Amino acid sequence: MDEWLSSLVFWTLAAVIVGSALITAFARTLVYAGFALLFTFLGVMGLYLYLAADFLGIAQLVIYVGGILVLLLFGVMFTQGGGLMKQPGRGAIQIPSAVMAVGMAFVVLLHVVLYTPWPVMAVERAAEPTTRTIGTLLLTKYLLPFEVASVLLLMALVGAVVLARREAKEQK
Amino acid sequence: MSDSGPLLTLITFLPLLGMCAILFIPSRQKEWIKIVSLIFTLPSLVLGIKMLIEFDPQVGYQFIEKAPWIPAFNIHYYMGVDGLSVPMVFLTVLLCPICVLASWGIEDRIKGYCAMFLLLETGMLGVFCALDLFLFYVFWELMLLPMYFLIGIWGGPRKEYAAIKFFLYTLFGSVFLLLAVIAIWLATSPHSFDMTQLNEQLLQSGVGATFRNLCFLAMYVAFAVKIPAFPFHTWLPDAHVEAPTAISVILAGILLKMGTYGILRVSYPIFPDSAKWFAPVMVMIALINIVYGSLCAMAQTDLKKLVAYSSIAHMGYVMLGMASFTPAAMNGAVFQMFNHGTITAMLFLLVGVIYDRAHHRDIDGFGGLAAQTPIYAGITSLAFFAALGLPGLSGFISEALVFLGAFPTWPIITILSTSGIVLTAGYMLWTFQRIFLGPLNEKYRTLPEINARELVTLVPLAIIVLFLGIYPAPMLNIFDHAVRELLNRIL
Amino acid sequence: MNNFAVPILGIQGIMPELLLSLAAVLILLLEMTAGDREGHGALSLSVAGLILAFIATFGADGKQVFSSLLVNDNLSALLDRVFLMAAFLVTLVSRPYLANYGLAKGEFFVLLLLATVGMMVMGAAMDFITMFLGLEMLSLSLYVLAGFFKKDVLSGEAAFKYFILGAFATGFLVFGMAFVFGALGTTNFAAMAHTLSAGSPPFPSVPTLLFGLALILAGLGFKISLVPFHTWVPDVYTGAPTPVTALIATGSKAAGFAALVRIFMITFPGSFQFWGAAFWWLALLTMIVGNLFALVQVEIKRMFAYSSVANGGYLAMAFLSHSDVGIKALLFYLFAYTFMTVGVFGVVSLAGRRERLLISEYAGLSRENPFLAAVMSLFLLSLAGMPGTAGFFGKFYLFAGAVRSGYLGLALVGILTTILSFYYYLRVIVYMYMRESEMPREALELAGSGRTALVLAAAGVLILGCFPNLIWISIEQVF
Q1: Which residues is A84 bridged to in the sheet?
Q2: CA B68 to CA B91: how far, in whole Å?
Q3: How many CB pairs under 8 A join B and C?
Q4: Which residues constitute the domain of residue C221?
Q5: Rounded CA gap, B394 and B463, in Å?
Q6: Which residue of B has its CA nearest to C418?
Q7: Which of A45, B426, C233, C331 is the 20 to 30 A CA-CA neighbour of B246?
Q8: Tens digit of each residue's pLDDT, chain B (491 residues)
């Protein structure tokens, strides 16, 4: 019963993710694509939660749905206004080659998935929120990446300023 | 053995030091640049004479310096000279100051010119002193570049074509040399580049005759390009004609010798049996060089091109001697290398003298100059006679030795080759007649006589040519022992 | 809080990185407070930081620091020196170059320093997490730097292309890392090697691992621009400001190779039979394609872009011949390549009054500025592999290593393409010295720091060309 329920949850989430991703790819307007993407993100969040990664799930929601997707939709509104997209490159060469590439990737992935002896770990379900563990790790074992990431963000800030800043005066 | 300190290192690298010094002189100070480069060629000459005096002909390699250079590959900085290299080193240090003097007229970008020239000198001396095959290759390549620049930047109207042709030919040869060097290194165990030991080491590691012959052939291509042996000779007339006078002197006087020196120093001792195997081909090429070179020379109307083709013919004598494996012929070949160096240097200097005045080199465009410039005509006649092998001048001795020694081994080819002597005499005398004899060409009524600086460049060479023509023993003694040892190895 | 284990800190282990980051922050502060218009302050701070960091690399003690996320061994110290030298020379060239366009701003140097920090983190990483962070730091700074000339359409195009394709490559890389993690259950290199040597799971039977490694190879192949992952190179190299191009061609490429060495050679040596064949083809294609395309270029930066691709092929060959000589040859060539490539791009930065000159526009440079022409010739000859220059020994070691490891065919292709390369390198020399420029131009003045950089690079090329053992000794300590 438990097994059955967990399978149901997984397959439902998977269907949501793949379906909405397909809609994103084939939608005729950017707005539709954007909204379909919302469900992809939500589905991924569901997967995280399902795997008991509560912090990751929330981060997914906050960053991707709350941040990136909203920004994306704003961008769409301000530029194209959500009109119909031109569909570039759906010629006689593009479709077969795309199908071939995707097909090959699929076959390889399938092979990888099926023939790998996956290490199975017995996970205790959500005894406590993972935030505590993550926080401790970030300040102990993974202190260095944490700090490097801060330098990286500083760098990104400087870079963004450099690219976005309006030149004060044309200098000769 | 001698305790004269790092003599060869000093001889080789003092010019390089001069190059560094020149780089710090502002390019406006043209006179100073020339003076400094002259000054930096002189210590090598002095040390070269010291080496000549201290050299003991009865001993093998001398003035040896050996230090690890790249231990990971068993490469050493290994310098030393024997009887074969001493004349070449001496020739180089002698010709270089002369060439700096002969370049005094150059004004355009003189700083670069002198820097390149001094680098070239270091490269050439390094080739003659190196006893490590890798070091030899490095110097061999090092020399190629300054030469390319010297022809390509300061050359005549078709300099770019001549320079690139020279470069491509030599590079082509170098690749084969490199392949042979690597093959030899891989075949020896422990891996070695020691030229004095390679023959034994190769025999020990038991490489087959095919391998040795292939290596010999690859090296031969590299050296043949430099000699230049038929059919790799076509770069030479272009390079000579376009190069400035001093560079033609270096090209003919020293660079060509590197080809034959390389065969004697590298190919013969390392692959003695392949040398014998290849001798019939080499002697044929020598014949072609002699006859074809002479015939081409005869057909030229450009004085410099004529001298260039005569060089091809004269190098043919060297190859004939080398392929005969008798003491007389081999001695003759080595002696001819030295003599050709001095004689051709004179010829090119003389061509430069007249070109600086008349601004053309058309043999038929002169006439009767003997009356106008008697000193010039006198020295030219000496050089021409030396080139055609007049008894009493040094060229005669070496050519006679070559023919005497070659006759027992290759009778027919030697007889055919003597036609070269006749042809040379023919075109040399004919040329002399067209330029100097007959009625004076009115255009050159005011042609100035040869000046003191030019005389300084020519007289030392003339003295050597005369002296060795009358009394060749001192020079022959230097390399006789080394030549005989080499022959022992081959036979 | 009793489970809050204090991590093994190793501040001395990240000293070079710390010093550089500090210099970057100081430049930012200076920019805000003093308004360093001409970039003199930024230049001095960068130079000071780089020199101090260089000195700090000699404190390598071989220890793993920060819970084995970074290692401070001879290899990372040596790589750090390559990165720092490249960054140092590029910094010196940048100031006069930027001043020429009125853009000598502190941010440029900040980004340059942080890119260098990224390289160093990458070279010392012992964990996928640190390696990825280093790579991102490096890449993001370079994306911005490539687009630093905002008024210049081509610079923008370069940044855009670099970013899009770089992001794709990063995606491959992360995907690959995820698969490897999935197979082995750890991101730490030492732990992975340990798991593998323990034999469980047996390596070849894990398709996940192979697939992951293949993806990582593709992602890093982009960084080191192996054919067929090189298509971004010509446009980005041409469009980016030239000193940035120099850094992309040297530091970034070296960092890519560092990651390759850490992952493939040190962590997965047993999998050689799988990635060896792939690398054989990549090296072959890269050498041939790079050299052939360089042959037909008319624009100088584009030519050097393809020449840099070709050099990546030579490096890949050294990487492949992982015998005792091959890997050392790789490190030696990185040094030699850094000197000559920064030198070449340095000259290109300073030789033109505008960006993107044609090769034919170098005619007469020997008259305008004999110094530039002379050092340019030296760098070109070194790239071609002339004896007496660093490039000669670099190539010699490479080919010797390849031959020793049995890659005779690859070595032959390498030698043949090297000969081919003589043609396009010499062509520049022919223009500089043997052709006169169509319109006589006045002499070209060189600013002090640019000249210093070129003199240093030239000295490096010559010293390595005459005494290769100076560096070879420290390389031998690595393995």
Answers
A1: A29
A2: 29
A3: 58
A4: 11-476
A5: 10
A6: B175
A7: B426
A8: 445 678 888 888 999 999 999 888 888 888 888 888 898 889 989 999 988 888 888 888 888 888 888 888 888 899 988 888 999 999 999 999 999 988 888 888 888 889 999 999 999 999 999 999 999 999 998 888 899 889 988 888 888 888 888 888 888 888 889 888 888 888 887 788 888 887 777 777 777 888 888 889 999 999 999 888 888 888 998 898 888 888 999 998 899 999 999 999 988 888 888 888 999 999 999 999 999 999 999 888 888 999 999 999 999 999 999 998 898 999 999 999 999 999 999 999 999 888 888 888 888 888 888 888 888 889 999 999 999 888 889 989 999 999 999 988 888 999 998 888 889 999 999 999 888 888 888 888 888 888 888 888 899 999 999 999 999 888 888 888 888 888 888 87
Assigned domain for C4 exists: no
Q: B27 vs C433: CB contact, 8 Å cut-off?
A: no
Angle at A154 between CA A148 and CA A159, to 5 degrees: 125
CA angle C162–C165–C171, rounded 5-degree value: 130
Q: Per-residue b/e over B56-66, b at no fewer than 16 CB within 10 Å?
A: ebeeebbbebe
> Would you say C48 and C23 are in contact if contact means Cβ atoms under 8 Å apart?
yes
Question: Amino acid identity of A137?
Answer: L
Q: Tally C-beta pairs within 8 A across A and C.
A: 97
Provide the angle, in degrees to the nearest 10, between the axes of the packed helices C300-320 and C324-351.
170
Residue of B65, B58, B153, B160 whose CA lies nearest to B480:
B58
- The packing angle between helices C15-33 and A143-164, to 10°, is 30
Q: Which of A109, A143, A162 lies nearest to residue C144, judging by beta carbons?
A: A162
On whether residue C108 sits in a domain, the answer given is: yes
pTM of the full structure = 0.90
* Separation of CA A112 from chain center: 22
What is the distance between the alpha carbons of residues A97 and A103, in angstroms, rounded to a whole number?
Answer: 10
CA dist C368 and C442 (Å) reads 6
In a domain, C235, yes or no: yes
Facing B153 at nearest CB: one of C399, C400, C434? C434
Q: Tell me where in chain A the CATH 1.20.120.1200 domain(s) lie.
A: 1-85
CA distance C405 to B464: 54
pLDDT (0 to 100) of residue C176: 92
Q: What are the chain C neighbours of A144 within 8 Å (beta carbons)?
A: 14, 65-67, 69-70, 130
Share of chain C above pLDDT 70, in %: 93
Task: State the nearest Cα–Cα gap between B74 and chain C, in angstroms.
Answer: 12
Q: How crowded is residue A166: how many other Cβ atoms within 10 Å of its Cβ?
A: 5
**Distance between CA atoms of residues C407 and C124, nearest Å:** 29
In a domain, C384, yes or no: yes
pLDDT digits (tens, 9 = 90+) for C3-26: 555 555 677 778 889 999 999 999
Q: Has domain A1-85 been given CATH number 1.20.120.1200?
A: yes
The nearest alpha carbon in chain A to C149 belongs to: A163
B186 by Cβ neighbours in 10 Å (0-12 / 13-18 / 19+) ranks as middle
Question: Mind giving me the DSSP string for B220-266?
Answer: HHHHHHHTTPTTS-THHHHHHHHS-HHHHHHIIIIIHHHHHHHIIII
